[in-house]
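Annex B, item 7. Sequence and structure tokens for protein A, then protein B.
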Amino acid sequence: MPHPPDGATAGSLRAVGISDVDEQLYRALLHNPRATLSQLTAATDCSPVLARRGLDRLETMGLVSRQGQPARFLPAAPDMAVEALILRRQEELERCRMAAAALLAEYREAGQSAGELVEVIVGREATFQRYRQLLITARGEVLMFDKPPYIGPAGNPLEVDVLSRGVTWKAVYAPEALEMPERMAQLRVWQEAGEQARVCNHVPLKLVMVDRALALLPLTADSETESEEHTAILVHPCSLLTTLGMLFDMLWEQSLPLRWTGPLTASDTGLDEIDRTVLQLLTAGFKDQAIARNLEVSLRTVRRRLSNLMAAHGLTSRFQLGQLAVRRGWV
């Protein structure tokens, strides 16, 4: 079987309805136009029955034509043939979208009960799956209150994919969420991808809201253990959803921006990267031990840098230092 060219991998045409076997046949024809059934069978290690059925399917899709007797098979040009399949699949998806809109109208006409406005989800796996579904459907905006403990990976591998689609992502972090190992490195990746991040000393709950149309939040206490049954609710459009959106907007305005990839440089501020990070964590409410742990330096190093910064600017308290850092735009 011929190897796929650069940028084209086996199975790359599944999205337009072409199976792996059919793709093998089509690739073999691209390398050997006018091949017979027996030649294609040998080239792809397919049985004659599978090869014949695959060629019939490819012919129906417009990727293959046959000539002569015994039949020889000719591949259609990939750019035209595959593009036609993509357009056909887009038309099918658009029809599905229209059907979904019609079903939604029927659903709303039937009216929602109070139980349908707030959906109860039981179990960690079920909650995490619903979280994934929410992010996949996000079109305009994701709002998040972030605080441990987490039911899924703390690294949130879905976020970069969501941001790559042009979705706005705003996150308000509790200080304890930023103290987790590797969290600073993750924040840099997310902010480079477009995340807008802030920190608040009092994040009241964990929350993810998508397009202000659905919100997922846990009901289980933060002290949950593996033995407890995790419970969450999915809130549909109603006054509770509106209230949650207003709560997010209020805390967002009151929170301190986190800027790990900002344009400031050492020459702009007179500070090196470690000093800037120390000030960022200090104003976010981190204790000295947490700052040292995040920077992977000793507690003595953190305290010495803070003392040097206060002395260099004639300050007598860390509170004054934090105010100065915010006022001068260092954090």
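Protein B:
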Amino acid sequence: MKTAIVGLPMVGKTSLFTILTGVHEAARVGNLEARVGVTKVPDARLDALAKIFDPPKITYATVEYLDFPAISKESLRDPSYLASLRVVDAMAHVLRVFDSDTVPHEKGSVDPMRDFEDVEMELILSDLVVIEKRMERLDKERKKIKNPEFDKEFALLEKLKVELEANRALRGLEFSDEDEKRIRGFQFLSQKPMLCVLNLGEKDASRLREIEEEYRNGPFAGRAHTAVTAICGKIEAELAELSAEEAREYLISYGLKDPGLERLISATYAVLGLMSFLTAGETEVRAWTIPLNSPAVKAAGAIHSDFEKKFIRAEVVNWKALIDYSGYPGVREKGLLRLEGKEYVVKDGDVLVIRHG
């Protein structure tokens, strides 16, 4: 799953990406040069399970981030920029909340909601251009060939056009499976899940969670497939230079419980509609990434395609029970290890042992 880190110039986007992934080199993303990095999803459950099983290997789930050049009207009219942005699964829009005399804002003042709406409008206009061009072509095809599918697609695009012309992003709409298939190939930018990352100044660090809630329950309340998290880029940069013990003390000095980057990664995972199930044994403790509400047979396929094809049953137990009763013998004795079939909906934190042919 790819998440694009986007934003206006001078918002702290690139330094955030570097802190997050440690990557300094650029790479090609479609037709565009961007930086690509992978970071692990922090998971205390794996650490706890590793104490029980003591495996030689612990494998965390990962999220892939792409650092895109700053968004502007010009960049969103550049075909290579647009094509590269369309292949991502979600966007993390870094919004500047911090004031700085030494880092000027391109618009002369700091206003995160203005910046958000400006970028949102550019995404909407970009999608509108795509829809209008497609409707024009479809109209010609409908005159030549009678095809019910053309009529259905045209009607759907008309509905989307109305939404965009009202300056509303497409991520606010729900689609049937059929309609989702019809529009999937367009990869509309305003339909992609959006994580709004508030980049605070040091003076606001102690109120970080409070500010996050103010935005979540205020201007961003009720927006579909939109999440909010807050970080303090300057503190994160300093944390990256410290040992684990020093970092903990540094966070406490600002009244913070955990690094903002951990919350950012978890929020990315959530906005993408993903979750983790776990596998645990003496050789490896591992988190596997699957979409929310996945059945057990699909979870088996995440481990290996053969497991999905030859799936028989899944042994399932909650990770906490495995900790509390010191491993599989303990949960078996308590009757907490269940046998589930292929339609069982896997829950976040389930530990699975797949039985297959």
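Comment on protein B: Residues 89 and 251 are 32 Å apart (CA to CA).
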